[in-house]
Design goal:
Shape: globular
Number of strands: 12
Structural class: alpha/beta
Radius of gyration: 20 Å
Bound molecules: adenosine-5'-diphosphate, magnesium ion
Helix content: 25-40%
Strand content: 15-25%
Number of helices: 14
Order of helices and strands: EEEHHEEHEHHEEEHHHHHHEHEHHE
Largest sheet: 7 strands, mixed
CATH architecture of the largest domain: 2-Layer Sandwich
CATH superfamily of the largest domain: ATPase, nucleotide binding domain
CATH topology of the largest domain: Nucleotidyltransferase, domain 5
Oligomer: single chain
Distance between the termini: 10 Å
Length: 364
């Protein structure tokens, strides 16, 4: 194995905004980001991925082909990052490659991420670690969220009970009390429903700063109905994705008389209230919240969240890791653990039977 501290982490989340690539240096107690690259998915690619989330004709061939396309796109990004930083493949210990989730069904015993890791290894000449979720699921865990172990490693404080809140397509919480324990779970939708709703109404990918939602009024009955979904009642460990929170989930609940912006406002309220309730219930001694993920940029959402939690809310940028980089860096960390043969799941979070080394290694 290459004796280097430089690793690359790659994340493409539920929101389907694109691929995040982080070039990192991982020392014992410190992680630094040397460079970062975000590749946007084209509308056409996003549509292809979206279709594969649900059963369709010839999906096996379509997902295999798309898996190759994603590896090519990712490989080009990695090679660009290496050239820009005057690094050769020999100087990189490995890549943590999450891939793109197209089905997440831990209750059925699987989670499927596409992105051909063998091809990525060929294109980059790098060792690639992929398929992080299925070993945890095989050990009866949720296979998600996987980032809390990393959050604990870099964000734990001896003096403050911290909540790390990731608002991506889905929202997930990591609670790090000073006693060293860890709680983590998906608490519900992040941006995913608001993204869907503004797409069908205004053909935009997302509601910048929550501006459109801000124009609307909360529809109380609709909010109540949304919140009656069983997912919100379930106790952790729990995880979710587009399998549950999708456009149909919105459509089956709305009435023709509702105005689109009121629905958007209600969806934003749902994201905020489900996060706030989860924090109150499972992180009752929390002193502070650090937000990451694209939702951290939604000014209106953060304002509402502040009112609901009465806690100080900052971004992980205030802890020296910019909010859009956290998840990609987490996968560099997870891969480093795999390559060092160290456990990288959190059984307390996922419900797995015990500690496991997650990830399949594709040697350079
Ligand atoms: N300025 C902004 N205002 C509101 N939402 C934003 C803003 N910037 C990004 N987002 C949201 O963040 C999402 C991407 O966040 P990300 O953390 O990458 O999620 P994922 O990990 O699911 O891909 C976008 O889909 C969008 O909804
Ligand atoms: Mg993303």
């Amino acid at each position: 194995m290459i004796n280097s501290k430089i690793l690359i982490g790659i994340m493409s989340g539920t929101s389907l905004d694109g691929i995040d690539i982080a070039l990192t240096r991982i020392d014992k107690k410190k992680i630094s980001v040397l460079d970062f690259l975000h590749i946007n998915y084209s509308a056409e690619l996003k549509e292809k991925i979206l279709k594969l989330h649900f059963p369709e004709k010839n999906e096996l061939e379509k997902s295999s082909m798309l898996s190759n396309d994603l590896a090519v796109l990712t490989g080009r990004g990695i090679n660009r990052l290496l050239i820009n930083n005057n690094l050769s493949a020999k100087q990189i210990k490995g890549v943590g490659y999450h891939g793109q989730t197209i089905r997440h069904r831990p209750e059925k015993g699987f989670s499927t991420q596409i992105g051909n890791a063998d091809l990525l290894s060929e294109i980059t000449n790098l060792t690639v670690v992929s398929n992080f979720r299925n070993r945890d699921i095989a050990a009866k865990g949720q296979g998600a969220p996987l980032v809390p172990a990393f959050h604990k490693d870099i964000f734990y404080s001896k003096t403050k009970n911290r909540v790390i809140l990731n608002i991506g397509g889905i929202s997930n919480i990591t609670y790090l009390p000073t006693d060293g324990s860890i709680i983590g779970f998906d608490c519900g939708p992040g941006n995913i429903l608001m993204d869907h709703w503004i797409k069908v109404n205004h053909d935009l990918n997302f509601d910048k700063n929550g501006k459109w939602a801000k124009k609307g009024q909360i529809i109380d009955d609709l909010l109540k109905y949304f919140l009656s979904d069983n997912f919100f009642k379930k106790k952790p460990p729990k995880s979710t994705g587009r399998d549950l929170f999708n456009l149909d989930w919105i459509k089956k609940s709305i009435k023709k008389s509702y105005s689109p912006e009121d629905i958007q406002r209600t969806l934003l309220e749902l994201t905020a209230i489900s996060i706030a309730k989860a924090i109150k219930k499972y992180c009752s001694k929390a002193n502070e919240i650090y937000v990451c993920g694209g939702g951290a940029k939604n000014i209106f959402l953060i304002e509402i969240l502040k009112n609901k939690t009465n806690l100080s809310i900052q971004t992980t940028g205030d802890l020296n890791l910019p909010e859009q980089q956290v998840e990609a860096v987490a996968f560099a960390w997870l891969a480093n653990q795999t390559l060092n043969r160290k456990f990288n799941n959190s059984p307390d979070v996922t419900g797995a039977k015990g500690f496991r080394i997650l990830g399949s290694i594709h040697q350079s």
